[in-house]
Amino acid sequence: MLAALHNRTYARLFTAQVLALIGTGLLTVALGLLAVEVAGDDAGIVMGTALTIRIIAFVTISPVMSALVNRLPRTTVLVGADAVRAAMALCLPFVTDPWQIYLLIFGLQAASATFTPAFQATIPQVLPDEDDYTAALSLSRLAYDLESLLSPALAAVLLTVMSYHNLFMGTALGFVASIALVIWARLPAPVPDVQAPFMERLTRGARIFGRTPELRGLMAFNMSVACGIAMVLVNTAVLVKPICTAMTLGWHGCSLPMALDQCWWLSPYRQCSNVSGTIP
């Protein structure tokens, strides 16, 4: 699987993806804390709405942007998307109302919906060999899975020495580093599918997904997993803050357990949380 990293262009692209994913993970932790600060007891509603907007924006905009930008230079598309994401992240610490969170999250996720399909379409051009391409897809999936484990842990460490507002700066830095690596990679020119009409290119992915039984089953499995994870992402900040306040830990003291609660692999902490019955 690591053989794909011998290709320098792909290695730089993969590193850019990892840094952008880490930045996104920091954003998720900081977003929960921001929601409590802005909305108080209604933070669960704000967080749930923001994450819903995040997913809907990605699902609806991604196929459209994939069809629209397939003839544009990959470097321009990827750099532009990362620049928008960095700008959105830098604006988040200054919001004062929930609607501002919704607007910025929509903009950030619209940029992600542009970046991801362009990134995925670039891989087979960089790695034309089928075995290398398969290894690259495996590495990409591994990066997504490890990000869900490592980003909350990194956020927990950072929250011991800084305010959660600075996590948004970390998110922006991740996107800026991604921009530098994409430019350094010197990507090949895209090979557009000039034969297919726009509507066919727009709906191709959904049609393939709908007629493949294995993919439909995978979607059902992911839905069941997401239901459990959603409880943690949406409600942890709301449930932890009153407990920390009663223990006079202060708002900064609440940040650490909120970040840790998203680290599913920290079994001792999970056991303590389950015994106390205070954190889902």
Topology of this protein?
Layout: H1 8-39, H2 43-68, H3 74-91, H4 98-126, H5 130-159, H6 165-185, H7 198-210, H8 213-246, H9 250-260, H10 267-276
Structural class: mainly alpha
Report how far the terminal alpha carbons are from each other: 36 Å
Q: From the alpha-carbon coordinates, what is the Rg to the nearest angstrom?
A: 20 Å
Count of runs of 4 or more consecutive helical residues: 10
Name the poorly predicted regions.
246-253, 263-280
SSE ordering: HHHHHHHHHH
Beta-strand content bin? under 5%
Shape: globular
Strand count = 0
Please estimate the helix content.
over 70%
How can the largest sheet be summarized?
Answer: none
What's the quick description here?
The chain has 280 residues and is mostly helical. It has helices at residues 8-39, 43-68, 74-91, 98-126, 130-159, 165-185, 198-210, 213-246, 250-260, 267-276.
Descriptive overview:
The chain is mostly helical. Helix content is 80%, strand content 0%. It is built from 10 helices and no strands. The longest helix is centred in the last third of the chain and has 34 residues. The protein starts with 7 loop residues before the first helix and ends with a helix.
What are the main properties of this structure?
mainly alpha, 10 helices, globular, disordered C terminus, 280 residues
